[in-house]
């Protein structure tokens, strides 16, 4: 077993990153040209890292699954990006952003990483503005901020409801500049299939060309995975259709540890599920909770009438409404963190107060805000979100409250990395949502964009260079080696096997069944019986998949069903590890809610004595139980206490 | 509802294509257009037939991956949305729906309804950026930008690069796409230093890649899912003219 070394630098927390940079190894400009780096993924983390590494002079090869790097799923982030600028003069600071993020993550994140994230947050805003990112501005011409969940200050920068898009296009423009210069080579419609390890170090990848079906070999001195999260293991999530966990899973099976796989974020404000043909769920930005008030009927009879379509929400008078977040959490109200808001919605719906024809929805009401500010102001703030809602649901949210329900949105868990964002495989790094590092058991709103760009622009270009400094004498190497051969053959065999089964079940039908198991037992509320059941059922489903799946066509050319089957192979294993991780963590923390461990008021109850650690799972072989390694978390700069959003 | 689909099938870039008819039953008006195609593909796969290839990803109208010419219009009969936001309640029981790929020379068909739009990336690579590297920058608030300009820049920057403007234009012109990027930077102080070079290079690349010229039909503005205005084209023409004479 490899020893888990988080490599946290010495010194006071505010000096660690500065100390690291002052003492790290560098590569001289002439030598950078001799070094090849592979980046998988072109979202905020991958796009920003590839551009920045290219600027430094490394030879970068960047791969994306989409037809263009501009389409990575970072683009769909709506609400904003946090930074500790304190422009509104409301008491923000680097320490406070650090504190809120660690607290929001329910004290299950590594202090040093989070502090660095808060520290570089301000550089991100400066960088993006210099790139020409059109952030929202006030009439005086300065940048505007708004509030997000889990904070008492306004520190969120935004570009209408399209912040992810604008930040991604900023990174994409920087990447385009480097492609034009020749320092970055772009490969589109490629999906990573495996990592190639030579003498214990990551030395390349096998990718599948999605247009020709051909497997390709690419070698490099280091590899960065920025492949996003694995929320689509649930089938229904707010993730894009091609977002998947395969790159992360395949490197896990080659020796990279998997951190906190069960930590999944359920976002409270999504459009409710409406039918079994549904392909994905749509998020309504958390920013809506700045002005929208969440409620359900105070009387069960009213809720039942609404479910039957006999009563309209606008007909329910003020005193018969239950603004349950404002009632339960007076200090934070509608702006409690996502895990708290999601559980509170589920609690009301389970108790029979839910609305919509399924009873699995709550209202998000803008009537008060429209009365107070005028329709124009609300339209300027959220116009595109209201339009999106109306197109999907066919109701006008200016006139009737929106209906929302929690949905799978983000995975805090991911590949285990140390302070340098290096995995347990030397030379393999992971950034953005693909790693586990900064959000603990629950991510605060507007922190994913911050982490992606922090990793990509300001962390990885330093830490990867530190690793690459002793690689300067390794020549560009051939991919014509037994290691590449073996990795490619392994993937080819899996493809051949999938195509040979020709059973009677489609990939999606099996994936939907996996999704239901995951949602019912490894979703918003978990317990020991359910998790044990999930493990057995996933194992059975996996067997069924390998005997009954039907993948039509061949591997010569585009084959979307084959692509989906290759991803489902991994979900059927990853889902089980998620359940195992949730099963061993006998506490509730953040998004991980074990029904056996809660306070009298129904809040998550941590067990700090036993569980203040990161679960780092180690692969031990096919059909063997994975091994749990523990990275202890040490809190020296923050007092660990019960999260409280009831009073400030 | 029951529908008749007429879908363009083409095995590869060099194969010749044709329309194939597929009847489809029991489609919920609540499902999205792409979910309707998912259902068709599930049925085709179950029968052992090759499913219809089409581009899609985020399914919430922001990534710009989905395309489709539906009954003669890019992204279907509604305005200001992408195909993934189109819902079946927009159609009637018994309708025939004709589905084609984007048709423009610079966007060759890869398979069926899927086209290659790498030409758009190449135009951006020619100059659609501010040439600064990652590193310490002046404080973000050091340079106030009038809200009006920031808002106009955001309007232009909201382009999703889907290609509907090219697909609908009889000249396959990319002027709306290119002008949106040129405008975003022309409106912001950060873009000023390279403004002339940028517009020259991007326009030259657009011409080189075989996109046609603009003859002011404004079809692009009508079909743009993000409602990008043709005033951006006017702004780009002005920028281009200024770059030429100086």
What's a quick, concise take on this entry?
Chain A has 18 helices and 20 strands. Chain A has 648 residues and is an alpha+beta fold. In chain A, strand 19 and strand 20 form a beta hairpin.
What share of the residues of chain A lie within helices? 25-40%
As for the number of domains of chain B, it is 2
Strand line-up in the sheet with most strands of chain A: 6-2-1-10-18
Please tell me the total number of domains of chain A: 3
Task: Describe the protein.
- The complex is a heterodimer of chains A (648) and B (246).
- Chain A is of the alpha+beta class.
- Chain A has three domains: 13-266 and 410-471, 3-Layer(bba) Sandwich (FAD/NAD(P)-binding domain), CATH 3.50.50; 267-406, Alpha-Beta Complex (Flavocytochrome C3, Chain A, domain 1), CATH 3.90.700.10; 482-607, Methane Monooxygenase Hydroxylase, Chain G, domain 1 (Up-down Bundle).
- Chain A is built from 18 helices and 20 strands.
- Chain A has helices at 16-23, 29-32, 44-56, 94-104, 111-131, 163-181, 246-252, 300-307, 324-328, 338-350, 367-373, 375-393, 448-468, 482-501, 507-521, 528-548, 560-584, 608-611; strands at residues 36-40, 59-63, 81-82, 146-147, 154-157, 184-187, 190-198, 201-209, 215-219, 222-225, 258-259, 264-270, 293-297, 321-322, 362-365, 402-411, 414-415, 428-430, 613-618, 627-632.
- In chain A, the strands form five sheets. Chain A has a five-stranded parallel β-sheet with strand order 6-2-1-10-18.
- In chain A, helix 3 (44-56) packs parallel to helix 6 and helix 15 (507-521) runs parallel beside helix 17 (560-584).
- The longest helix of chain A is centred in the last third of the chain and has 25 residues, at 560-584.
- The radius of gyration of chain A is 24 Å and the shape is globular.
- With 246 residues, chain B is of the alpha+beta class.
- Chain B folds into two domains: 3-111, Roll (Ubiquitin-like (UB roll)); 118-245, Fumarate Reductase Iron-sulfur Protein, Chain B, domain 2.
- Chain B is 34% helix and 11% strand.
- In chain B, helix 5 (175-186) packs across helix 8 and helix 6 (195-208) packs across helix 8 (231-245).
- The longest helix of chain B is centred in the last third of the chain and has 15 residues, at 231-245.
- The mean pLDDT of chain B is 97.
- At the A-B interface, helix 3, helix 5, helix 6, helix 12 and helix 13 of A face helix 1, helix 2 and helix 3 of B.
């Amino acid at each position: 077993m490899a020893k888990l070394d988080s490599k946290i630098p010495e010194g006071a927390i505010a000096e660690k990153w500065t100390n690291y940079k002052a003492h790290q190894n560098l590569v001289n400009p002439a030598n950078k040209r001799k070094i090849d780096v592979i980046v998988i993924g072109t979202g905020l983390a991958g796009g920003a890292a590839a551009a920045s590494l290219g600027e430094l002079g490394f030879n970068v090869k960047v791969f994306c699954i989409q037809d263009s790097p501009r389409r990575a799923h970072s683009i769909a982030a709506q609400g904003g990006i946090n930074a500790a600028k304190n422009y509104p003069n409301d008491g923000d600071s680097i320490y406070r952003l650090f504190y809120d993020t660690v607290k929001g993550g329910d004290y299950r994140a590594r202090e040093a990483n989070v502090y660095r994230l808060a520290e570089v947050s301000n550089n991100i805003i400066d960088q993006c503005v210099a790139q020409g990112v059109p952030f929202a501005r006030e009439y005086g011409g300065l940048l505007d901020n708004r509030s997000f969940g889990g904070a008492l200050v306004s520190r969120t920068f935004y570009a209408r409801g399209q912040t992810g898009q604008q930040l991604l296009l900023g990174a994409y423009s920087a990447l385009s500049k480097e492609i034009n210069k020749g320092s970055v080579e772009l490969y589109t419609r490629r999906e990573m299939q495996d990592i190639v390890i030579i003498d214990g170090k990551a030395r390349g990848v096998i990718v599948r060309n999605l247009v020709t079906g051909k497997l390709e070999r690419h070698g490099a001195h280091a590899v960065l995975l920025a492949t996003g999260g694995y929320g689509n293991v649930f089938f229904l999530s707010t993730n894009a259709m091609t977002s998947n966990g395969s790159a992360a899973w395949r490197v896990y099976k080659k020796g990279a540890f998997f951190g906190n796989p069960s930590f999944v974020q359920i976002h409270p404000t999504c459009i409710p599920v409406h039918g079994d043909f549904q392909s994905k769920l749509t998020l309504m930005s958390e920013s809506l909770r700045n002005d929208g008030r969440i409620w359900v009927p105070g009387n069960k009879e009213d809720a039942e009438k609404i479910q039957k379509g006999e009563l309209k929400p606008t007909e329910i008078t003020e005193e018969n409404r239950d603004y349950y977040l404002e009632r339960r959490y007076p200090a934070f109200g509608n702006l409690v963190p996502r895990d708290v808001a999601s559980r509170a919605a589920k609690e009301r719906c389970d108790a029979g107060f839910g609305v919509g024809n399924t009873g699995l929805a709550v209202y998000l009401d803008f009537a008060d805000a429209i009365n107070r500010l005028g329709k124009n102001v609300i339209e300027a703030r959220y116009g595109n979100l209201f339009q999106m809602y109306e197109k999907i649901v066919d109701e006008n949210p200016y006139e009737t409250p929106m209906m929302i329900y929690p949905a799978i949105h983000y995975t805090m868990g991911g590949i285990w990395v140390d302070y340098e964002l290096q995995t347990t495989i030397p030379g393999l790094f992971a950034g953005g949502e693909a790693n586990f590092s900064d959000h603990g058991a629950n991510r605060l709103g507007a922190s994913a964009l911050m982490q992606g760009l922090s990793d990509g622009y300001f962390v990885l270009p330093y830490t990867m260079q530190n690793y690459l400094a002793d690689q300067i004498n390794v020549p560009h190497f051939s991919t014509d080696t037994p290691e590449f051969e073996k990795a490619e053959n392994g993937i080819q065999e899996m493809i051949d096997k999938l195509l040979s089964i020709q059973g009677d079940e489609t990939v999606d039908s099996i994936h939907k069944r996996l999704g239901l198991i995951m949602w019912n037992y490894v979703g918003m509320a978990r317990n020991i019986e359910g998790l044990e059941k999930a493990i057995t059922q996933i194992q059975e489903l996996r067997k069924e998949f390998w005997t009954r799946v039907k993948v039509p066509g061949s591997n010569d050319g585009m084959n979307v069903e084959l692509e989906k089957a290759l991803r489902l192979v991994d979900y059927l294993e990853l889902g089980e590890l998620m359940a195992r991780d949730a099963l061993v963590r006998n506490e509730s923390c953040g998004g991980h809610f074990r029904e056996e461990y809660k306070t009298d008021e129904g809040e998550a109850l941590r067990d700090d004595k036993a569980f203040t650690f990161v679960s780092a799972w180690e692969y031990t072989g096919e059909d063997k139980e994975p091994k749990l390694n523990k990275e202890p978390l040490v809190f020296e700069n923050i007092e660990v206490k019960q999260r409280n959003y009831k009073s400030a | 509802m029951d529908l008749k689909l007429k879908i363009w099938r083409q095995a590869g870039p060099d194969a010749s294509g044709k329309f194939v008819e597929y009847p489809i039953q029991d489609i919920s008006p609540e499902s999205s257009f792409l979910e309707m195609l998912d259902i068709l593909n599930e049925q085709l796969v179950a029968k052992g037939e090759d499913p219809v290839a089409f581009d899609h990803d985020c399914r919430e109208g922001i990534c710009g991956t989905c395309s489709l010419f539906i009954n003669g219009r890019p992204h279907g009969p509604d305005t200001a949305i992408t195909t993934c936001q189109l819902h079946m309640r927009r159609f009637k029981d018994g309708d025939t729906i004709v589905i084609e790929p984007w048709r423009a020379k610079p966007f060759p068909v890869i398979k069926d309804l899927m086209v290659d739009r790498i030409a758009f990336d190449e135009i951006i690579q020619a100059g659609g950026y501010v040439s600064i590297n990652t590193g310490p920058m002046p404080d973000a608030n050091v340079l106030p930008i009038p809200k009006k300009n920031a808002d106009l820049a955001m309007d232009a920057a909201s382009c999703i690069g889907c290609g509907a403007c090219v697909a609908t234009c009889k000249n396959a012109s990319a002027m709306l796409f290119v002008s949106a990027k040129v405008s975003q930077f022309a409106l912001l102080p950060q873009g000023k230093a390279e403004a002339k070079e940028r517009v020259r290079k991007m326009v030259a690349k657009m011409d080189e890649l075989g996109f046609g010229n603009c003859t002011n039909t404004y079809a692009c503005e009508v079909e743009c899912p993000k409602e990008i205005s043709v005033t951006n084209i006017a702004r780009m023409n002005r920028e281009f003219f200024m770059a030429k004479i100086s």
